[in-house]
Design a protein that fits this description.
The structure is a homodimer. The first copy, chain A, has 9 helices and no strands. Chain A is an all-alpha fold. The structure holds a DNA duplex.
Chain lengths: 200, 200
DNA sequence: ACCCAACCGGACTCCGGAGTCCGGTTCGCT
DNA sequence: AGCGAACCGGACTCCGGAGTCCGGTTGGGT
């Protein structure tokens, strides 16, 4: 977290330039791949040495491509958020707003059962431009989905995208600690979250 | 966590003997008091030096009364769990099982808004006999409450005490991180949790 | 009033994870 | 093939929180 960035050309803050050498590019990909796998299995709190080990490189090589752990997390988390954004945006074209909302929540829940990084991405207290942007996009997409559901009378009058985030990340946090991986369990909590936001 | 206990008389594992000297007893009380306040404000992850500072004693004095941080947490958490147990047990005599369940959840939610240690006690991954016992008691009491609610057709067929724990501690975890202290927010999530478990 | 066990707390060690350094190796351009 | 820049990774530092030690202080029984 000590960047002491030279002024230099205005490079992206979160993504370092693409390495020039082939081996470096290969390693970068391996690290992202390994990080995605480890984060999926253990959550975003997983430890760098383990990611490096799985990628078959040293710790310093990780830090070469990603100036801090946060940058690495952001690289993985951004993808997950974009997935959510797409999911929610697509659901906006569903004629039944209530069913659309339910389908989105269930899809997130189901994916979360095999990938801790999904909810982690919504929860992470990391603020890098790229990630903030992706988070905002997913927030808006879910917000739009909720607005439709509410207007259609399917959801609570005061339901918000923040509620979705809080319920999902909250449950995810507990379930991750107990290493719960059964998709059925996650589907069940998905139902409960939908019910929590449904109009009574 | 390195107890190296002399054989000696079979003392309780979690509660150290009452100190012989008056000042030591006074300090012990101060530490518990301070711990309760700090844990309430910042959650069970709060740091020992801060508790010592608020109690007006040194770190070592804390460790004199409580062999490890877990023991101190357990001392505070046990009380909270006993409060929950009483709450749930009392509610069993309510003629309307659905309303009783709702009242208990709302009471927990409301108290939680001003005391992070409540949900923390349900969530803590600490296993000391005294605490495990209190946790089990609260679990059984809530379980009984839920059984009644389910039999009366007010709650989901598959609702369990574990669900209550997961939903409450999950939401609590997120709300604590955002330093949310508004009781109204907590009441609202209390409603949602009740709805999540209600029969549709 | 005396005395010593019990207690106090500042300063220490220990540990684990984030981030850095540098001597050795490899890529890829010529 | 040759060579310098780019890259590699083992071993380091740094940091913060848990738990321990020991020289000085205090309580309370006689």
């Amino acid at each position: 977290m000590t960047l002491t960035s030279e002024p230099g050309p205005p490079t992206s803050t979160t993504t370092t330039l693409r390495p020039r050498r082939a081996d470096a590019r290969r390693n970068r990909e391996r690290v992202i791949q390994a990080a995605a796998e480890i984060f999926a299995a253990k959550g975003l709190e997983a430890v760098i040495p383990e990611i490096a080990r799985r990628a078959g490189v040293g710790k310093a090589t990780v830090y070469r491509s990603f100036p801090s752990k946060e940058h690495l997390v952001a690289a993985v988390a951004t993808e997950r958020l974009e997935w959510i954004t797409t999911l929610a945006t697509d659901a906006l074209s569903d004629p039944d707003p209530g069913a659309a909302f339910e389908r989105v929540i269930m899809a997130i829940a189901e994916r979360q059962s095999g990938d801790c990084a999904v909810a982690g991405s919504l929860a992470a207290d990391i603020h890098l431009p790229e990630l903030d942007e992706a988070r905002m996009a997913s927030h808006l997409a879910i917000g739009a989905l909720i607005d439709r559901g509410r207007d259609a009378g399917a959801l609570r009058d005061d339901a918000t995208a923040a509620d979705v985030r809080i319920l999902i990340t909250g449950v995810a946090h507990v379930l991750r600690e107990t290493r719960e991986r059964d998709p059925a369990v996650w589907r069940r909590f998905g139902e409960m979250i939908v019910d929590a936001l449904r109009r009574r």
